[in-house]
Design brief:
By secondary structure, this protein is α/β, with parallel strands linked by helices. Helix content is 39%, strand content 12%. A 5-stranded mixed beta sheet has the order 1-3-2-4-5, sandwiched between helices. α7 links the parallel β4 and β5. It is globular. The two termini are 22 Å apart. InterPro entries: CarbP_synth_ssu_N_sf, Class_I_gatase-like, GATASE. Its EC number is 6.3.5.5.
Length: 181
């Protein structure tokens, strides 16, 4: 368990209490920094939030066996769409693995027309759009669960296009070229 031991009471009462208690939220005292470090070092894993310090074996097996299938497909756009930028200087394909809207806004703000394509798009379909660059978006899950994306990333490599990513996108890129998580 990753816990916070010395959380200043005054901070909790002044900041969290007025918000949490009327909404019936309860805190667990977890260090999100330690959690992120754990995930970064060990990869995606199943977990459970509970106030029971002694989970039974059946509950532990249920947590370990839990699988999410098709997470990226569930959050990716279903059809390609173009988002033009006024006075565009570049066109970027945003390969959507669960992209946040702000990614599109920031690319457009920087003079890029954006073509958002679904996660199942092939390298050939991406290259047919003649992009100046490819943005691999954020999204849920583990690169190892997205083998189709990894295969298509390898097919994009010979095009030698600037390719950049966020979260899952960069993890897929690193995984594809053998750099680990």
């Amino acid at each position: 368990m990753i816990g916070v031991k010395n959380l200043p009471t005054f901070a909790v009462k002044r900041i969290l209490t007025p918000f949490c208690y009327p909404e019936e939220f309860r805190g667990f005292g977890i260090s999100t920094r330690a959690l992120v470090k754990l995930i970064r070092e060990h990869g995606v894993m199943n977990a459970i939030l509970t106030d029971d310090p002694e989970l039974g074996e059946a509950a532990m097996q249920q947590v370990q066996a839990y699988r999410i299938n098709g997470a990226v497909a569930a959050v990716s756009c279903k059809n390609a769409r173009a988002i033009p930028a006024e006075d565009a200087i570049r066109t970027v394909v945003l390969w959507d693995f669960g992209a946040k809207r702000n990614i599109v806004r920031e690319l457009v703000k920087r003079g890029c027309s954006v073509v958002c394509v679904p996660a199942g798009t092939t390298a050939q379909e991406i290259l047919a759009r003649k992009p100046d660059g490819i943005m691999l978006s954020n999204g849920p899950g583990d690169p190892a669960e997205n083998t189709g994306i990894l295969v298509e990333l390898a097919r994009l490599m010979p095009a030698n296009l600037p390719t950049f990513g966020i979260c899952l996108g960069i993890s897929c890129s690193r995984s594809r070229w053998g750099a680990g998580r």
